[in-house]
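Hi all, long-time lurker, first post. I run a small reading group and we've been trying to get comfortable going from sequence to structure in the token notation. Rather than ask abstract questions, I figured I'd post a concrete chain and ask someone more experienced to write out its structure so we can walk through it together at our next meeting. Sequence below, copied exactly:
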Amino acid sequence: MKYCENCGAKLNDDDIFCENCGAKQSEISTPIKESQSEQILVNNNIQKKKKLNIKIIIPVVVVCIAAIAAFIVYNQMSKKVNINDYISVNFSGYNTVGEAHFKIDKEGLNKAILKAQGKKESEILSDDSLSSYEALHDCVRISLSNRSGLSNGDKIELKLEYDEAANDLLGIKLVYSNKEYTVEGLQEAKKIDAFEDIAVTFSGVSPNGKASVKNNSDDSYIKNLKYELSKTSGIKIGDKVTVKVNVDTQEALKQGYIIEETTKEYTCEKLDTYISKLEDLQDAQIEKLKKEAQDKMESYGAQKNATISSMRYLGAYTLVSKGKNDNGYNRLYLLYLCDITYKKSSSSQEQITENGYIPILIPGVMLKADGSVQYDSCQSVTGNTYIGSVSCYKSGTDMYSSLITKKKDIYTYTVSGGVSEFGN
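-- Answer (accepted) --
Happy to help. Here is the structure in token form:
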């Protein structure tokens, strides 16, 4: 019987390897006494315990180190405040003219600093002075790479600059980083016709008519726009005036409106106007004037104890004032060749009939914008001689000379009908 030289286990004399520990044995082994064997066993157990203790201690040490590291990291992290977490960027306005704004959560940042400083929850909740934020305020500079004229999809950068001395002042670690944002959510502006609810009115008498413009829009923005006319007076039919809206198109765009046209041309198509020739009137209107002229002659003849008959319409003279302040005031003469019958004397019943030229004056003949005709009610018979008691002209040339030739300095004139033979 022999014992293992390594672990002291009992072996057969011819065993080369220990069945217990596998150690190789010397070829010549010296028998070990029983007391020596027991000592070997004791030493072996001590070695096993040492190995076991080492296996237990190493993991414990590792766990402790990890815990300490975690504590250190946590302690450091708890003293850090990321400024970016308390800054928000938003966009407003309309596409192509949008604006960017940033906002700082002052209360949130102030509480985060207090917490990092190790303040108790009760202290944090009761502190509404924003003192920590105010201390930080002068140390941080925040800016945006672009604030205006923005379109959806644009990129802008939030930039932060920080004075590291604030860390010592606050006793914490402030961290930050520049951050890129994509512009989104800007509304599309709507195209509008700035002249849709604009009324341009022409009034007065051509050629000295007047123009005015009125904004009838109910839109909250458009109704406050101002319009101006290129011409407001001295207007005649056919004249064109330009209306201009006084607006900053970029400012309008910021309000959500795209104004593509800022001017518009208007034509004076209708205006009260004194006629310059008889042909300015419609046939029915001319016939109405003729009827009134004939009624006037009949009435006039009766007043003069004469009879005016066989009223043959010859034509007309239209005289237009050259006076700047007369608005083209006119005098229309309807010309007639008539038979004038009168008593030879008051005591005689004998009647005499003679031919005479009678012009009927119709002053101020105006064609209204609505198409109607207006003229002064005063109508008179004029002449340079008398047949009986009736004022008239003996010849057409006398009539032309008296009504036209002598007044060319103050009137322009037009001859209508078959009376040009008397002069033109």
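A couple of things your group might point at:
Confidence is low (pLDDT under 50) at residues 69-77.
Helices lie at 34-78, 106-116, 121-126, 131-137, 165-170, 249-254, 283-303, 396-403.
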